[in-house]
Predict the structure.
Amino acid sequence: MICDIQFGKLMIVSDLHGNGFDFRQILKVYRKLKSEGKADYLVFLGDLIHAYPGKRKDESLEIIQELIKMGANKKGSGVICLLGNHEFVHIYHIPLQRGHLEFTSWFENRIRKNREEIVRFFMDMPFMLRTKGGVLVNHTGSSDRYAQTKGIDLNWFKRYSHEGEFVAHIENINTYDPQISSLFMKTAKGDYLWDVLMNGNERQYGEEYLEMVDDLLQFASVDRENSPMTTLVSGHIGVDYGAETIGSRKLRLCSSAGCLRDLEKKYLLIDAEKRYTNSLELLECCCDLY
């Protein structure tokens, strides 16, 4: 559940939240870059689904179906989709609510005829991506749990399978049952993954969050003594102008939902072999999506 990229150039985008207009623009840009030899991989940072009210038509299901058709996350594919919290909740039947908004049930209603295919696609999404040069890419960013490695370490993430000791979500994979989520949340991995995938970054932790970024980079470097992770790229939280630095080691990217307008949306283009020593170097690699 960790993807390692040794060579090539990566076009990285974040948080579509069902925006088919941006999805088609991303594919257009990627195909152009690929034809010019400027991109080898297209990486989605998670939260492909669940539109917010008042935005464009929700094309969450159509986006997922197109990615499945494209062979995303299959061996040899250049399209990689990382796991976001909005995909995670459907694997474990978790009702996701933000204020008065409830996201899960609407999408579940749309996938009721082919739920297993969609959920298994979510189950194949890696938690993290690492480049040879030391860039760590994930959806949420860091949390206070990466410093607490008792029983859960990098190898746990590498070996992780959504089909383990807890099986209620697999036994009921064709039908959405919110009661399963309460059982899952009582397990050690359920409690851990909820904190890792659902937290609010610096909005939740304050100034301590910068130390947590360091903790995550160290956590993801234990098997790479000679080429440790030096910088982090994530989405998860909106950015008015498309990209921003969070301290000296993290870049937050916003390619769709969370930007002020289309002209502010950004994608990141990096070389897997290159070492980016700080977040400002990554910021310079951000390009306008439109």
About this structure: The longest strand covers residues 266-271.
